[in-house]
Amino acid sequence: MVVARAKALSENKKQLTKFVLIGGLAVLTDLACYYTFLNLIPDDALRGPMDNEAVSKCLSFLCGLSVTYWFNKRWTWRRRDRDTGRLMRFLLVYGISLLLNVGINSGMLYLLLNEPLFAGWPLKYLIAFVVATGTCSAFNFLGQKFWIFKPGEEAI
């Protein structure tokens, strides 16, 4: 029983470590694309409920999403099948995460750019990005571990 617990704990640590490493790569992809899109989409190009910051964040999130799915599927969770149900669960979790991410990013930017308390803070876009990404990372790990790539499914 103790050995089984130790193996399970060891496997959990490996999975978390791999998830964090792949997450770092996905975050770098997301961040690079976010700043690229911010600079490509003119400030006045979009009017209405989604401004260029929100559109840039959506597009960059999707770039990071593709990195995290393929690398986590193969390396962290060791799945090589083409399970459409798993892909649909992944897209649902990450769809919710996208809404959370964009909402948190937009809310943080609103606070950082409009509240006098934060007027002197540097790197406002980076702060908003880190808060949104960090919050969603925990949500995504739990969704992957316990629903998308749930324990008990065969891994190779």
Count the strands? 0
Termini separation (Å)? 24 Å
Structure annotation, total helices? 4
Please give the share of residues in helix: over 70%
Radius of gyration: 18 Å
Query: What letter string, H or E per element, gives the SSE order?
Result: HHHH
**Share in β-strands:** under 5%
Write the topology of this structure.
Elements: H1 2-40, H2 52-76, H3 84-114, H4 124-148
Word description of this protein:
- This protein is 77% helix and 0% strand.
- It contains four helices and no strands.
- The protein has helices at 2-40, 52-76, 84-114, 124-148.
- With 156 residues, the protein is mainly alpha-helical.
- It starts with a helix and ends in an 8-residue tail after the last helix.
- Helix 3 (84-114) packs antiparallel against helix 4 (124-148).
- The mean pLDDT is 86.
Please summarize what this structure is.
The protein has 4 helices and no strands. It has helices at about 1-40, 50-75, 85-115, 125-150.
Primary descriptors:
156 residues; mainly alpha
